[in-house]
Amino acid sequence: MFGSCLNYTTLRLLGEPKDNNDALARGRVWILSNGTATAAPQWAKIMLSVIGVYDWSGNNPMIPELWLVPRFLPIHPGRFWNFTRTTYMSISYLYAKKFVGPITPTILSLRDELYNVPYSKIDWNGARGICAKADIRYPPSVIYKVISTCLNKFVEPILNFWPANKLRERALRHMMEHIRYEDDNTRYVGLCPVTKALNMICCWVENPNSDTLKRHLPRIHDYLWVAEDGMKTKIYDGAQNWEITLIIQSFCSTDLINEYGPTIERAHSYLKKAQIRRNHPGDQSYWFRHISKGSWALSTVDNGWGSSDSTAEALQAILLLSKFPPNLVGDPMEEERLHDTIDFLLSLKVL
């Protein structure tokens, strides 16, 4: 249901007509016969809410105030996995803002196409706990259901009225501060396309004319590529560093390195430039970051998220190349930079 609803909606927003289109017709029949868009999982409901095809009251609360609780508590989002943390930071921001995009004729039509009953008669409160069977990997626990119900009925209404709404405003400012930090330190590439898109929407909600949003737009292309059957998007901004290190190691294990010396020299030069040379600014613990100096990201240096496996493989490739003549593969990396790499790996306890 996740992919069906979002792909159907995307095609309609891109101008595909609902009639005389066999693929959309079959997709619509499947969606309506499997619970309608009210049975979409949480992330899909969020995106449908943003464009105005699903009501915000049909979402389980994702209160931004959770970011203001003491950091030693296990429920603080700063303790979450980085992909989860950065994704739900943006989602919580949008949820608290209850942002809805322009309601166009296409949006009004989608409100009819994705449901079996009139949009105005949908039980949004009941829809909060609905999810298509095909999308359920782990059924929500009783504890989760109780907490969500309490947040929805008691906590959320209180936080939207004075004086508690002052706390919400503070939480939103705090989250936007972290969103901007993430954008600045990934050069607007983002950790992945999900966080990239969500952060970009948050920046647009805050100020559609901001320089921050303008910096986001050119980097959309980092995730797009044109294949023989049309444009596609990647689940990451690439795996350049990872692939190059493995290719170098493969060449070093054969006689091909003598045959393709100039190619290896260019790969070696790239790998040295791709190393992250500094830690991110500020207190790493405040920003929920780990040291990054001396590491390699999975993709490029712009991504900025040092990876243990990419760094370890890059180090191995660099050390293997140091055994060959510099006139063949280029000058070896400076010893100080190798020490930075070792320090990074030791900090992760992977050696």
Automatic annotation (TrEMBL):
Q: Which GO terms describe its cellular component?
A: lipid droplet
Entry's InterPro entries? SQ_cyclase_N, Squalene_cyclase, Terpenoid_cyclase/PrenylTrfase
| GO MF terms, alphabetically ordered | intramolecular transferase activity
Transmembrane region positions? none
Which SUPFAM superfamilies does its entry note? Terpenoid cyclases/Protein prenyltransferases (SSF48239)
GO biological process, alphabetically ordered: triterpenoid biosynthetic process
Q: Which residues form the Squalene cyclase N-terminal domain?
A: 6-226
Pfam families xref list: SQHop_cyclase_N (PF13249)
Q: Which PANTHER family match?
A: TERPENE CYCLASE/MUTASE FAMILY MEMBER (PTHR11764), TERPENE CYCLASE_MUTASE FAMILY MEMBER (PTHR11764:SF89)
Designated name of the protein: Squalene cyclase N-terminal domain-containing protein
Q: What organism, scientifically named, is this protein from?
A: Leersia perrieri
Q: What is the lineage of its organism?
A: Eukaryota, Viridiplantae, Streptophyta, Embryophyta, Tracheophyta
